């Protein structure tokens, strides 16, 4: 079984949940990449990073997949800056139905640091997803996303 198959097995039930699928209808960093595809990407990159950096791979995959579960169209928000500050807490609230552990809630809550200055990562898993989110955002905004094989597989799941 290759890494992407292991990742898919680990996240199977969560990926199929209607609440998670609802992120597929929300555009995220770019119009062409949904919030669901971004979250799948972050979850997968975090999962792969954990092989080298350690940490609880299952909590990283779950926290990564739920980290942007804010479920609203942020372009309709009054202020983009406000959205940047509040969406991690919105995601924690929406993800509570998935029985979050304290570690998983921390991963979601702290993914925007340093924008959310006081929510800084203190645990390895929080740091890994924070880093994965930034790597993925850069890949999406620059278009590198479309050239990565893992993204092609992950994007197909989000369709
Ligand atoms: Fe986010
Ligand atoms: Fe994100």
What layout of secondary structure does this protein have?
Blueprint: H1 3-16, H2 18-21, H3 35-53, H4 57-66, H5 80-95, H6 102-109, H7 124-142, H8 149-158
Helix pairs in contact: 1-3, 1-4, 3-4, 3-7, 3-8, 4-6, 4-7, 6-7
Bound molecules: fe (ii) ion (2 copies).
One fe (ii) ion binds near residues 68, 87 and 112.
Q: Number of DSSP helices?
A: 8
End-to-end Cα distance, whole Å, is: 23 Å
Structural class: mainly alpha
Elements, N to C (H/E): HHHHHHHH
Query: Can you identify the CATH class?
Result: Mainly Alpha
Q: Give the strand content.
A: under 5%
Mean pLDDT, to the nearest integer, reads 93
How many strands?
0
Can you put this structure into words, describing what you see?
The protein has a single domain, classed as Hypothetical protein af1432 (Orthogonal Bundle), CATH 1.10.3210. The chain has 159 residues and is mainly alpha-helical. It is globular, with a radius of gyration of 14 Å. The mean pLDDT is 93. The protein contains eight helices and no strands. Bound molecules: fe (ii) ion (2 copies). The site of one fe (ii) ion has 4 residues, from loops. One fe (ii) ion binds next to helix 3.
């Amino acid at each position: 079984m290759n890494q992407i198959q292991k990742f898919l097995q680990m996240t199977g039930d969560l990926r199929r949940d209607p609440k998670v699928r609802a992120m597929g209808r929300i555009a995220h960093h770019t119009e062409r990449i949904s919030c669901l595809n971004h979250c799948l990407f972050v979850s997968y990159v975090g999962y792969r990073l954990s092989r080298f950096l350690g940490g609880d791979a299952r909590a990283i995959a779950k926290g990564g997949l739920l980290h942007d579960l804010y479920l609203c169209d942020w372009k309709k928000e009054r202020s983009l800056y406000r959205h940047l500050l509040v969406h991690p807490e919105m995601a924690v609230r929406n993800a509570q139905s998935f029985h979050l552990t304290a570690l998983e809630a921390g991963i979601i809550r702290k993914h925007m640091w340093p924008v959310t200055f006081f929510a800084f990562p203190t645990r390895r898993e929080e740091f890994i997803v924070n880093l994965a989110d930034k790597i993925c955002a850069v890949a999406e905004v620059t278009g590198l996303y479309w050239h990565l094989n893992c993204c092609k597989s992950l994007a197909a799941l989000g369709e």
